[in-house]
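User:
Care to share a sequence and structure tokens?

Assistant:
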Amino acid sequence: MRIKSLLTTVIAVTALLPLTACGSGGDQAIGGIGGDSVVGGTGEGDGGPNEGTLDNPTKNGGVNGNAPKNGTAFQQLPKAATMAAAARYVNGYTKCTSAATDKNDYEYWDDDAQYDAKWSVTERGDCGKGTRIFMLKDAKAFQAAYKASIDAELAANPKKGINGGFAVGQDFAVIATSRNAISAMTKPGGLYILNCNPNFAPPSGYVKEKALVSGCVLTDYFKD
């Protein structure tokens, strides 16, 4: 079954960060975002009950909901509330006109099965070409699960360069394989990359803010 989303309102976003796939040194980024990226695109929403409007992006806890100007880095991240809203947001940066939630239409179904209730993931959607969306019940629990997975990888290979696997909002996360899409989504006003590598040290000028879990940060630094 596919969730079809029609975009009718574009919320201008000066997006924030690029991501990079977990440390294989390969060409994957931020856990994976698919091709057909819209570089310089903007996140959008339709002003529905779970979204804001062009004039008031935070109305109804919209796609930029719960984002006080003086809030923490996490509180300023976009919020979607539903898979449809998250897909509309992602579609502003890379193709995601619909998000498949059925096994038959989900290219990475088996690979992504690990991101389950233990990760506080309530729903998974595949936009195609490597872009996947994960709706989160508890963002802190999700970050803790991600950190545990990184700790395990580093225990096996301490020198492994892991610079982020997910681009995150307040209640959803994205995996992608297109570096252009990642760069577009992770600029000011967009998503941040979740980085739990204790050796992570971005160059000066990049964001490095506290995440919800000790030992993890939110950043806009992208390195493939």
